[in-house]
Structure formats: C-alpha cells, structure tokens
Specification:
Shape: globular
Strand order of the largest sheet: 1-2-10-7-3
Number of helices: 17
Number of strands: 14
Strand content: 5-15%
Largest sheet: 5 strands, mixed
Oligomer: single chain
Radius of gyration: 21 Å
Length: about 400
C-alpha cells in the first residue's frame, strides 16, 4: 500500500495523524517542522500500514547510527507502491551495504571531487551564459535541474548527457508524480540503466565507477547478483539527480529574498562555505527516509515494537534548537553548523562532498556574475514535499548592464 495524496487540510493533526504527502506540509513546511521539534518528538501516522516520525536531532542521530535496531533493509520509501524497485546500498544494512560503499566512496571522496571542481565551474558558467543577457531566468529549469546532471554524467558516470532530460523527468515523476505513475517511471530508469550497464560490461575497462559496479562485490561469499549491480547504479543516478537541484534553488531563493545576506557574501566570499551548510540545513531535499524497527525500543518517550516502520525526519532535526541555536536563521557567520541534511550513520550521503562542491560553485559563480537579483514580482516558488522535497520553479530577475 502506498501513501494517498490528499488536498490541503489546515486542521490535520500532524502529531497524531501525520501524512508525509499532505499538501499542507508542502505549503507550511517550516511551520510544521518547528512545531514537531518543539512539541512532538515522535509523531504517529495512520496512513497505509502506519508509521512513526522521529523529529528531534538527538533521536534522529541515535536511530541513524544504530542500524541493527533501525534497519534500512526494507527500503527508504514508506508504504511503497506495488512494483517498487530498491536502490542499493541505500536499502541495505551492513556488512553488504559497507562492501558496496567501499567501492563507491573513492569516486565521491574529497580528493576526487576537488579534481572536477574546475569543470563544474565551466559548466555553471556555460549555463549562466545562456540567460545572463536576458535579465531573468527560471532558475530551476535553466540551471539547477541541469548542473548536477552535467557534472555527474560528464565527470563521474559516463551516461550520455543527451539522455539527462528523460532520466530527470522520470526520476521527478517517481519522487513527486501521481502515485500510479511512480513505479512505472522508475522502472523506465531501471531498464535504461540495465541496458547501459550490460553494454559497458562487454567493453574494455575504463577505470571508472561503472567498472567497479560491473565488477561488483561479494554477497555472503558469492558474487553480487546482476540486479544488485543495476540497483546500485540506480541509487547513484537517483541521488545525483533528485537532490542537489533543490538545494541549489534554495540557496538562490534565499539570496534573492535576503539582499543583506547576498551583499554580505559578495563582500565576504570566505563565508560561502558556511552559506553552503546553512543551505543544506534549511533547504534539505531529503526530508525523511524510512527504517524498520528490529526489536522493541523506546524513542522520544514512545514505545516502538519490532516491525514498526519509522521516518527519520532529517529536515526537522536540522531545525532543532538543541543542536543548532536560533535554527530558523540563515547565519553565514555561524561558528558550527550542525544538521542532519546528509544523513547520519552508515547511510550518510555518498554524494555529500559532491553536493557541497556544486552548491559552492553555484553561489560563487552566480554572485560573481549576477551580484544583484530578486524574485520577479508576483511570483513565488512552488514546492512539492513528501519524503523528498523539491522547488518546482524559481523566477528571478536582474538589471542587464
């Protein structure tokens, strides 16, 4: 059974009748999160088979680190649709999870990411070139939906860039589309990557991440099955295309609506790295992945039983004042930015260093070339929220010199 999309309900009790797909969450996102952190350490949902939502930073951190009690093996998606396809190693526990991460990590490590930063800046500027003289753009479609794919496909996973729009559309449908279209959309991505991986398996090695996925790892003393290799590539593509776009849009939206912060960053670029962390904290694209409770346990004053499903509310945890004082403020001078945007424990985001680099490049290059910009009057971003969150559009303008 899967979540059921419902119209906005201003009277929904998000403490006792939480619904991750309720439209009111998309519209009142920060308000709902702040309320949960302040008043409801563990919320209850009655949707589908039912689940609990863990909201405070300390509890989210505890659950994320304790994979034996809070397992990922039943999948990151709550109440998944019929025919849902797993993504690996996201939907795995150690030690099999760790075996896959060991072969993937080197391609997303700080050194590997640093080596492609100059190329990322080139791609960023090529995108800006296309709209800078227009004095306006729809930032999501014209920049944020394109840069992550260009970096991923040109420098890490050599999938043809011409196929990026189709893959992005199907992944967006899987994440936010009508419920009966989600699994078929992801199925199309799976079939595409299955064919791509098979073709690469018949070619000479190129020394890239695809070779490592084709080679695979051991699973209980035997070679990993073929489908696990496809599911692993699926996770890399899904993570690379479905998340950073929203964070980029969040950064530019915040700078468009807070000219004091924007001008401060222009004058003091040494704070851009802090702006990246504040963006990840307040505009996290991953809201709440699922886990399964493996043994009876108490969390946040609530007794959970073996077999219960929970969501780790990363987005709420990143707004917990116990972890980050004055959490609603985007503070580029904050001495330590504590958040859960990239996850905690074994499942800490594989692409965290890549995402940070792409965000830094975006803020750097946009402010260098377009230091003054604002929302186009009469427009505002439209969001969609579920276990992931996305900004569907962002219309901004500036004066053309």
């Amino acid at each position: 059974m899967t979540e059921t999309l419902e119209p906005r309900r201003a009277d929904r009790d998000m403490h006792n009748d939480f619904h991750i797909e309720d439209h009111s969450l998309a519209e009142r996102f920060e308000e709902v999160l702040d309320d949960l952190v302040a008043h409801c350490p563990v919320a209850r949902s009655n949707v589908g088979t039912g689940y609990y939502v863990i909201n405070r930073h300390a509890d989210v951190r505890r659950c994320g680190q304790d994979w034996r009690t809070f397992s990922s093996a039943d999948g990151w998606m709550i109440n998944p649709p019929e025919g849902n396809i797993p993504i690996l190693p996201e939907d795995l526990d150690p030690p099999y999870h760790d075996a896959w991460r060991r072969v993937l990590n080197p391609f997303f490590a700080p050194k590997a990411v640093a080596e492609i930063e100059a190329d990322a800046r080139t791609y960023a500027n090529e995108l800006i070139d296309k709209f800078i003289d227009n004095g306006r753009c729809e930032f999501v479609a014209e920049y944020a939906a394109q840069l992550p794919g260009l970096v991923l496909f040109k420098k890490i996973v050599p999938v043809p860039v011409a196929d990026l729009p189709t893959l992005f559309t199907d992944i967006d449908t899987y994440s936010f589309g009508p419920l009966d279209e989600r699994a078929p959309a992801f199925g199309r991505v799976y079939e595409y990557l299955n064919s791509f991986l098979k073709a690469r398996s018949e070619q000479p090695p190129k020394g890239d991440v695809i070779d490592m996925i084709v080679a695979g790892v051991d699973k209980e003393g035997e070679p990993a099955p073929w489908e696990d290799k496809v599911h692993t590539l699926l996770d890399v593509i899904f993570g690379g295309l479905a998340t950073t776009t929203t964070a980029m849009a969040g950064a530019i939206y915040h700078l468009a609506t807070h000219p004091d912060i924007r001008r401060d960053l222009v004058a003091h670029p040494e704070f851009v790295s802090n702006a990246v962390e504040e963006t990840a904290r307040l505009y996290s694209p991953v809201v709440a992945p699922a886990r399964t409770v493996r043994k009876d346990v108490e969390v946040g004053g609530v007794q959970l039983k073996a077999g219960d499903r929970i969501l780790l509310n990363y987005a709420a945890a990143s707004r917990d004042p116990e972890a980050c004082p004055n959490p609603g403020k985007f503070d580029i001078r904050r001495e330590e930015v504590v958040h859960a945007a990239f996850g905690v424990g074994p499942h800490r985001c594989l692409g965290a260093h890549l995402a940070r680099m792409e965000l830094r490049v975006t803020i750097d290059e946009f402010l260098r070339r377009i230091p003054e910009f604002e929302l186009i009057p009469g427009t505002k971003p439209i969001y969609e929220s579920g276990q992931l969150r996305t900004m569907k559009n962002l219309h901004i303008q500036w004066s053309v010199r």
